[in-house]
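Retro notes, item 3 of 5
We never archived the inputs for the adenosine-5'-diphosphate complex last cycle. Fixing that now. Sequence and ligand:
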Amino acid sequence: MNDHTRGSVFDSDSASLSGTLDEPLLRVENLTTTYDLDKGYIKALDNVSFTLEEGKVLGIVGESGSGKTTLCRSIMRLFSTAHVHTGGSINLAGENLLELTEPMLRRVWGRWVSIVFQDPMTSLSPLMRIGNQVSEGLRIRMSLSRREAKQRAMSILKSVGIKSAKEYFPRYPHQLSGGLRQRVAIAIGVACEPKLLIADEPTTGLDVTIQAQILKLLDKLRYDHKMAIILVTHDVGVAATAADDIAVMYAGRIVEYGPAGTVIRNPLMRYTRALLDTSPHLYHDPHSRLKTIPGHAPDLSNLPAGCPFSTRCVAVGERCHNERPELIGAGDDDTHRYACWHPVDKVGSKTS
Ligand code: ADP
Ligand code: MG
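Structure as it came back at the time:
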């Protein structure tokens, strides 16, 4: 447990950091999250490590069930049940979030780190006017008066592209379109200008034009406020357009990681290639059906001994069945990392 008598960076009234950090804003190390089930447990996150600098966007991509939401919820410390166990460390501004007490966490939520979920209907209160939902957080977290909070909420709604904020302020979530609701959820997430915004599939289910607007909005926020963003998406094409770095997840692990351009142009994992093939963002020929990755996501309670993707991989070899590959640097360029015994460029295109 941290000794908070020495003072925490989270005690300060303004979440201002610029120039004060001698290490990345976020450093996640060996993050492992398990869910207790009736029959044993599953490791939904297995030794996940990465860093994220101020103002940068990390895209987390992977099929459904690969652990993306578990990662977001673990960083937010949103698990309250005794059936979820999280190990490793999550250092935000040099403090391990896993060691924070509940009162300290409340100081962190909203002002240091916020989350926006895929379906804003689950995070917005159906019974509260949207304007009040934005201003309430401001009143509580920034100790603003009712009037100040209302003014600020209005300007935040405008900044997320709700031009007639005054007209929308008194409306309820069900009176808004899906795109507008997601903007309100983002407005709530960024109201206190957190240093880190976690967006868990913020554009899934929205039409392409609205998707593009939301991505543009996130981009503006990171430039205007130096906000770091974890952008979770099952569509690697979304990450390709919006992220600086990409982490590809499979069965609770990061299996490929690197600068977005490198990962997209030169994916080393067959799984990453397959994800690229399934991206509606990258392949939007309306006359062709979208591809899917053959086979099923693995059963986390019964993973193969070797590479978790071995049961579906076209380039599978003997070693893949028996030994689990660790994440290693790709030769000269260690910023690009992968976990595979037979990466794409080592065997050419015959297995692609
Ligand atoms: P993703 O967001 O990539 O779809 P999730 O993090 O939601 O993946 O899920 C990862 C794995 O953890 C899945 O096998 C899922 O069934 C399991 N899981 C997620 N939430 C829970 C939970 N609350 N209890 C038990 N298992 C869970
Ligand atoms: Mg999810």
